[in-house]
Amino acid sequence: MEIKKGISQMPEFLNQEINYVVPSDGKMYYVLKDGILEDGTVIATLDPKYAFDQTIPCSTVGAFKEDGSVLIDFDKKEIKQIDKDLLLAVSSKPSSNEVLDALTKENDEISKSMILDNATVITDKLINEMGITGEMLFSDAFSEANVYKTDSYNNKIGIDCSFIGKTSKELYFHTNDVNSESKIVNLGAGVVDTNANDSGLGNNALSDISQSDENDAINPTPVVEEISTISQEEGPIVSEITDVDDQSTSEDVKLDIDHDILNEFNSTNASANSEEDVTPEEETPSIVSEKEVEDNEVVEKTSDDIEKEMNESNFVSTDSGSVNDEVLDNAIAVMKKMIEETNKLNEKISNLEKEIEEKDKTIEEQESKKSELNTLLGQANEMLEKID
Question: What pTM, to 2 d.p., does this model score?
């Protein structure tokens, strides 16, 4: 069985790689992540979204053998590997009487509470029977599962039931009937023949499976066309990965792109381009002085000069002219105030400089007088010495 690679065209998983197979029934089966096992078993689904995200509810999970024959019917809601050659499969449509009875009572809070209490008792019972090496594989009183071997079609080991546990040597099965006994299967003693052949399919021919009414009800329209994309009305979109150098194939892929997506993309780009073309460039108002300053000489301007220059400048008129005028008036008033304060500071500085000059002169005069006094004192001392 050939496993192909494709590229998802679904919006939520756009351009993500996905493995898929197209067996003899012509349908596309999407391989789950880690769904290709060592022995060649392939776990797949008819729902591509589930192949990407296993948290999405699904009812079309199954498994192929390496030769492409069906191993587990594609009517399960979950399949996982629990051992090298063992798969746990959860049924999407429970058939056991115990589970069907529980489902009828699920909306009754009292009955539901009793069922959940019994589920806890059964789980504890299995854990005690398995011992410390055991683990619970499945526990859901409102659902059922079974364990399959990967050697032949529909080869169930145990019974369809709500509780399954496993040790290194044994499998434990228990229905949701708290009064029933556990069914123990020794893994080394071969499989237990329960209802493995109840499906009536008889063999593992894929054509018999794919033509069943149940699968046709799930997928009423073809899901796959090889190397093409399908519209969302028909199903998920997946295109096959091709060689980059193959020009003809790449052209085919381009033709298969959803026209609605292309039109939306083009319309978006067109609107964006039109907005860019319409948007005018903003012109910033410029203020041109009547006088040029030559040789980088700093010229002191008064508030009247600045106001005159601003009034004579050319401004681009806009719809918000009144707002701009108000802003300019405020700016002019602030600049006037700043110039007045600057002039006052300059005047104070000039007065301080004059005071300093006067004080310096006073100090010089005092020094001169001090020198004269020292001279007179010296002369007086000489006269006193002569008198003595």
Answer: 0.52
